[in-house]
Amino acid sequence: MDDRNMDSSSSTITDVATKHPKSIIHIDIDCFYAQVEMLRKPELRSEPLGIQQKNIVVTSNYEARKCGIKKCMLVSEALKSCPNLKLVNGEDLHDYRASSNKIFTLLQHWKSPVEKLGMDENFIDVTNLIQEKIKSTNLSNIKFTGHLYREPETECPCGCHTRLKIASQLASEIRQKIFDELGFTTCAGIAHNKLLAKLICPLHKPNEQTLIYPEHGEEFMSTFQSVRAIPSIGSKTTETLISQNIISVSDLQQVAVDVLKKHFSSDMAVRLKNLCFGEDNTPVKQTGRPQSIGLEDSFKTVSVRSEVEEKFSALLQRLLMLVREDGRIPVSLRVTLRKKDVKRLSSHRESRQCQISSSIFTVNGGVITITEAGQQKLMTIIMRLFNKLIDLSKPFHLTLVGLAFTKFQERMTGRSSIVNYLMNDLSVQSVLNIQNDCDTSASSMDYSAVSPSSSTTTDLSDGEVEPSPKKPKKVNWIAKRRCLSREDVASPSKLKVGELRLNSKELEKVSELRLNSRDRSLTPRASPAKDNMSDTSDNMKDIAEGGNCDECPSYVDKDVFNALPEEMQQELKSMWKNPANSELPRTSTRNMNKSKPNSILKYFVPQK
DNA sequence: CAGGGACTCT
DNA sequence: AGAGTCC
Q1: A20-36 per-position pLDDT tens digit
Q2: Neighbour order of strands in the sheet with A121-125
């Protein structure tokens, strides 16, 4: 049956399932920060430009690189070697984040999984696209686009060469579109896996792309003089490897896996072994909403409790804003801190986390809200966690505190999903009001009277810290109305109590009503003006997709999104709403690292 | 560094 | 849950 591989001239579906089935494109935006600045101020384009954070030039345009500016150079040195260097402060990441999101959103255009890696890198798995394209293409005489790492000696029997050539054309198309629509030049790497796509990407730059075939993976990998060049091998792993005299990727290729198993888990050992030969089967995972939202603040030293409390309070304020933007209700909170430790530089964080009562947050007109009392509760929880970390009878010295919401209300499937749907909805109240001909106060108070599910609602006494339930305690949906102070009447979110008591049929009814009301543009807003955000377009999209108000994730640029075909917008939304693997999608989206563009280059040292 | 997150292991 | 790693 192996003969079927011989039939490589005409690619078949079985071929694709063979050796190198996937086609991955890695796209890297050239000197990202600098390009953002140059797009903002075109006059900078012709001058050497450096982006400054603190006292270092984190990146620069190619004009500046010509005169010797390296990434992460001290400002003083940079100015020495390039006196007319223009510097722009790049400490506020907001605009970079926005541009990054625009690009990410644009990449959705190809209807393939896109994984964001930091601010300026994206993987896109175009395997399926290629599949379709291959059917409608004359396979004879296909030519790749861009650079080729190495000319193949023989055609790979699995047909991957053809697929990758098409992928290279696709990469070119993608880069062109990014340039046409957003003005960014990019580099791309095309390969049959993420590892090679990423590593080959910077081979030709800027504004170029490179294709590598699987058969050259091993040799290509051996050109890296440090194992550190391999993504996922960080400083610790490098240290361990070096301690075993494994320095270069070539060293790694030659060491027996059993040797590695003495220092790494069996899993890791195998992974390392695969990676060093250019093998990697990790999937491109569609980037979705973050699984945690957090902030940290570092400083010289804090040694007094009250000061700590202030730090946390400030962090909490900011964090709550982010949570509101995100739109999901947090159910778990983590406190992190770093103790002053002369020994180990940085790192060495410690953390404590706990569940938080669902009554702390409410959904008010689609916006997450929290009362003053709720914030007090959170501060109490935070300081309780803090006490777990610090022995207050002894002096302490902190250099960092952090706060993060680490879990959010679960999405549910099937029938219960509609509950979730309504829970977060902003206009249920309005709809019901329409139905009931406006009796706001009465109706919402009525619900509160409905059988308070007794025990579960007793959280006011101690309630903030949910004792981690041994048996998955029923989510505390039933918040006691009574405890919600003012604005109880005005808040539509209160309805959730009542809604949960409706049977599924009734829920559908409510949902339907709501949709109708929207279609007629009646949707009155129970909540006062939201923040800026284009309200009208939001509503339009809600209608189109069936009215879920948690439309696109916050990292998605609205303008770009709106520019996409309606059909695609809906597809995207359903993807975001029902992330492929049932769980919430992963990967940071709020990732504002100072990822140094193209930093992988520093590990790329051609063999002597 | 510094600030955010994700994944993995225990 | 919490720590360690990695980017």
Answers
A1: 999 999 999 999 999 99
A2: A114-117, A121-125, A24-29, A186-191, A209-211, A147-148
